[in-house]
Amino acid sequence: MKKNIKKSITEYFMITLGSLLMSIGVYFFKIPNGFSTGGVSGISTIFGKILPFLTTAKWLMIINIFLLVVGFIFLGKENGIKTVYCSLLFSGLTMFFEKYIPLQSPLTDQPFLELVYAIFITALGSAIIFENNSSSGGTDIVALLLKKYTSVNEGRALLYADFVVAFSSIFVFGIKIGLFSLLGLFMKAFLVDSIIENIRTCKYFIVITSKPDEVLKYVLVDLHHGVTINEAIGGFSGEKKTMIHTVCKRIEAIKLRRKIYEIDPHAFTIITSTSEIVGRGFRGVL
C-alpha cells in the first residue's frame, strides 16, 4: 500500500511539473506570438484574437471544461481523473500567469527563436504527462471521439484536428504566423515522440564473468532487478563462465557498470539501449 501511495504521489508530482511546463510554453511563447500549433491552446489563441471579450487563458479554461464534459458523456471513465486534474491545472496556471505576469508583447523580436522554445517546452511537458499515463485533455478528447465513432485512428485524428487549428491561424494572424504555426505543429509531432523515447530508455546488460555470485548479489539486492543466468564456454579458451542478463534504468546503468568492473575487471560486458521494457519493475502491458 505504501508503495502504491508513493507511486501515486510521484505520478501526480510529474503531472504537475508537466502541466507547469506546458503552461509556461503556451503563455510566455505561444500566446504573445499568436502561434497556434494545434490543441486547445491553439484554439484559445485564435479565439482570444477574434473574440477579445475573453482573454486567451479564459478561453483555454472554458474549452477544456467543455471538452472534459463531452469526454465524460461520450467516453465515460476513459477520460480519467488524472486527465481532469492535468487539464484544469494547465488552464489554471495559464490564468495565474495572465493575471500576475501580464505580457503586452513577445519576450523578444525573434519569432523563430520563440517558436523553438514554445515547441520544446510544451513538448517536454506533454511527454512527461503522457509518460505518467495522463493527458492534458483538449483535442486528445476530440481524437478519441473520432476514433470511437469513425474509422480514423487516434494518431491521425489528432493530427487532423491540430492541422485544422494551425491552418486557421493563417486567416487570423496572417501568412507569416500561420506558416510558423504549421511548422511548429510538425516539429511538435516529432519532438514529443523523441522525448518520450529518451525518457523510457533503459539499458540491457549481458555480463560474462567468472565471479557471478557478487554480480548477482549487487543486481538483486542493491538494484532490486531480476536476472537470467546461462552457462557460457569461451570458444577460444574453452573456459567455463557465467552469462548474466539484466535490465536497468539509465541512471542505474552507470553504477552497475562500475560495480562489475570492481568485482571482475576481466568481465566481458555488452550494454545496449532499449526504449521498451515490459514487465515487473518497468512498464505493464498496455
Q: How is the main sheet built?
A: 4 strands, antiparallel
**Strand sequence of the main sheet, in spatial order?**
2-3-1-4
| Total strands | 4
Strand content: 5-15%
- The outline comes out as elongated
SSE order, one letter for each helix or strand: HHHHHHHHEHEEHE
Rg of Cα set: 24 Å
Low-confidence regions: none
Q: Mean of the pLDDT scores?
A: 82
| Helical content band | 55-70%
Question: What is the first-to-last residue Cα distance?
Answer: 22 Å
DSSP summary: helix tally: 10
Quick synopsis:
By secondary structure, the chain is of the alpha+beta class. The chain has ten helices and four strands.
Would you mind describing this structure in some detail?
The chain is 65% helix and 11% strand. It is built from ten helices and four strands; from the N terminus they run ααααααααβαββαβ. It has helices at residues 2-33, 39-50, 56-75, 81-100, 111-131, 139-149, 154-173, 175-200, 212-222, 250-263, and strands at residues 202-209, 228-233, 240-249, 268-274. α1 (2-33) packs antiparallel against α5 (111-131), α2 (39-50) packs parallel to α7 and α7 runs antiparallel to α8. The protein is elongated.
Key features of this structure:
4-stranded antiparallel beta sheet; alpha+beta; single chain
